């Protein structure tokens, strides 16, 4: 059976890095693609950043490759994450030979809760003066994340993971989060450490090697993964996977970069690495490994895009990756 | 009139860095001190981490010098911040000659909202599965913070500040926060930029020189200031001031460091810098400047505590600072 992949370039450099990535995918697997729109441009034209047919395409696809969107990002990506019931966002952050990094030894993965926390989005303006947001933490979502984290640690050769949280302040909600995850880890015989998310920010900046796998609530994952991106040389390299039990959405952590959009020099590495995560998800393990190796070799030996000090175009980088696959 | 200062060493290295700091203060101003207890040790003895007489001493003092507490920190510092109505937490983060730093050019100040956000602490376990926390953002607290930020920028020679937030997800609450602060800034003719807190984490890690003054909600300030601490060489150097309209609590950002407590080698710099902020607050501007210069010279020329690669004790560092004051 040929898997069906929804493809959403989005806005800005999404229209450069996604086509480049499809050429890399074409070199290893034959998929059936469903090209659909989302983001600022389609919103400007139709009033709707997430057209119904896009939502439908993603819901019917085995996996989605997502580029990047602009101002409307939250209106696009949050409903899409919901639509595929992606309960975890996997965000690996590591450095590569040939790429300058603030912390060159970084190699970690953030497993971010992807459905609740402050993202549950229940807000009210109660009076002229007062507004509130309801932060939601459930035992069931925490348990599901914990099961995933245990599987992830097991299958990637880690002894355990570190829970990032703020349960000294958010005693009930992050209390439930930490307690539930610790309980699952102990049932499963996996080591679970924990750290306050503020202290972890200090530790990450000074010595990220002390962490392998970090498990955290939604907003903590948002901030800590962007911090990790800063440590490894910028957002141009970080892929991510929004994973549900049956479907997934694979997207670079970077945005649509209006400042360089249209110039054809965006770094496609993060999107190609996201495609490698898509290949993993669909059990094309050998193909995923081959794509990763080809990108790593290209990062080390060139050609490189300007963000990494080179002067190659997006397409030249993609060509080099494709060449190295054959 | 002699000002009254409440002194809370707390736990662990608090009992080392606070007495050292008092010797430095004694060299420049004569205060009346009220020595009181808080933290794990007193909780163990009496069941109460924040005894009534401590709360009373802080409420009656012109200012409080606070060391560090352990497991009970949230039970101590959050009610104390409330008690003095400290609506802002000022957290400067900069590097010093002689101190290794991940980002040696860092020089910024975080102005953290200090009364609400997720710290408002309204939580419920609604069912076996579901827990909630109410995040509170008011126009009045945002306005008060904004007025302070404008004054701060003015009197410290900055054109403006950058608001860190997540108003694409927390649309109503961080929406109110950002809009209110932008409005005050525009009334006051102060420049107000803004950035998503996740993007700011990337930028801080890669190039903190793009920020001077950051204004943010409570939890964002907690995390971003610890990140900044990591960039400038660790928590050993960061002071903070919890400032209300009439009172203030001055505390190092670091904790009570049980791993080195009792050895007499804790770095007193963060607490002495906090005392300098206390002197500023009470309008001892010359004395504050003198203390800062004396600590900076000591950081550059030694003696230094082990965390900075030296082998001096806490007291030897304090002696050196006192010597340089005379
Ligand atoms: C666009 C935004 C809603 C999103 C998030 O906060 O999750 C982004 O920052 C991310 O991390 O994917
Ligand atoms: C101890 C804790 C409640 C506190 C906070 O979160 O504010 C601390 O981390 C700080 O930053 O002063």
From TrEMBL, chains A, B:
State the Gene Ontology BP annotations. Answer: isocitrate metabolic process; tricarboxylic acid cycle
Residue stretches making up the Isopropylmalate dehydrogenase-like domain = 4-321
Q: Name one Pfam family in it.
A: Iso_dh
Q: Which UniProt keywords apply?
A: Oxidoreductase
Query: Is Nucleus found in the keyword set?
Result: no
Molecular-function annotations in GO: isocitrate dehydrogenase (NAD+) activity
The record, for InterPro entries, names: IsoPropMal-DH-like_dom (IPR024084)
UniProt record similarity statement: Belongs to the isocitrate and isopropylmalate dehydrogenases family.
In Swiss-Prot or TrEMBL terms, this protein is called 3-isopropylmalate dehydrogenase
Give the species: Haloplanus aerogenes
At the highest ranks, the source species' classification is: Archaea, Methanobacteriati, Methanobacteriota, Stenosarchaea group, Halobacteria
């Amino acid at each position: 059976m040929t898997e069906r992949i929804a493809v959403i370039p989005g806005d800005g450099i999404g229209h450069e890095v996604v086509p480049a990535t499809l050429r890399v995918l074409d070199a290893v697997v034959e998929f059936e693609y469903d090209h659909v729109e989302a983001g600022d441009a389609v919103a400007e034209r139709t009033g709707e950043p997430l057209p119904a047919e896009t939502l439908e395409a993603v819901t019917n696809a085995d996996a989605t490759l997502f580029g990047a969107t602009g101002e409307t990002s939250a209106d696009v990506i949050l409903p899409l994450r919901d639509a595929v019931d992606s309960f975890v966002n996997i965000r690996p952050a590591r450095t590569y030979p040939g790429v300058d990094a603030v912390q060159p030894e970084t190699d970690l993965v953030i497993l971010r809760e992807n459905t609740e926390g402050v993202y549950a989005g229940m807000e009210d303006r109660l009076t002229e003066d007062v507004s509130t947001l309801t932060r939601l933490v459930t035992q069931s979502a925490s348990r599901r994340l914990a099961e995933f984290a245990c599987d992830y640690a097991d299958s990637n050769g880690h002894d355990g993971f570190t829970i990032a949280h703020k349960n000294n302040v958010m005693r009930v909600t992050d209390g439930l989060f930490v307690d539930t995850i610790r309980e699952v880890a102990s049932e499963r015989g996996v080591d679970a450490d924990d750290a306050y998310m503020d202290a972890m920010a200090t530790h990450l900046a000074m010595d990220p090697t002390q962490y392998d796998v970090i498990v955290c609530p939604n907003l903590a994952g948002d901030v800590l993964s962007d911090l990790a991106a800063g440590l490894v040389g910028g957002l141009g390299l970080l892929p991510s996977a929004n994973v549900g039990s049956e479907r997934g959405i694979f997207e670079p952590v970077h945005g649509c970069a209006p400042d360089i959009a249209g110039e054809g020099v965006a770094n496609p590495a993060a999107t190609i690495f996201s495609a490698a995560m898509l290949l993993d998800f669909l059990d094309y393990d050998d193909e995923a490994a081959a794509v990763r190796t080809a990108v790593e070799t290209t990062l080390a030996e060139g050609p490189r895009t300007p963000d990494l000090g080179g002067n190659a175009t997006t397409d030249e980088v993609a060509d080099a990756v494709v060449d190295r696959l054959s």
